[in-house]
Amino acid sequence: MTASQQRRSRVIYSFPSREYFANLGIGPKLAIGFGLMILLTLLVIGVSYLSSVNATASIERTNRVRVPITLAASSAQANLLRMLASTRGYLALGEPEFRNSYLIENTALQQDLAQLNRLAQLYDLEEDDRARLREIEARFAEWRPLPAQLFALRDDQLEREPAYKILATDGISYGGRVLINTQRLIALQASQPATTESLSALRSMATFQGTFASMVSGLRGYVTTRNRIFRSEYDSNRDFNEIAWFQMNESAALFTPDQQKILAAIEADRAEFLKLPDQMFAALEGAQWREDLYLFKTQALPIGDDMSRLLKEMTDSQQNRLSTELSAGRAGLERANDQTRIGGLIALILGVGMAWFFTLNITGPVRRLTAVAERVEAGNLDARAQIETHDEIGVLSETFNSMTAQIQQNVVQIRREKKRADDLLNVVIPIGVALSDEKDFNRLLETMLVEAKTFCRARAGTLYLRTEDDKLQFVILRNDQQQLALGGTTGQKIPYDSLPMYQPEGVPNDRYIATYVALNGVSVNLPSIHEGVGLRYDGPREFQSEYGYESTSFLTIPLKNTSGEVRGVLQLIDAEDAESGQVIPFDPNLQQMMESFSSLAVAALEAYSREQALRQEIRQLHIVIDESKRQKEVQQIVDTDFFQTLQAKGRSMRNRRFSSEAAARGEGEPPEAQPEDSVPQSDTNPAEDAE
Question: How far apart are the first and last CA of the chain?
Answer without folding.
Answer: 109
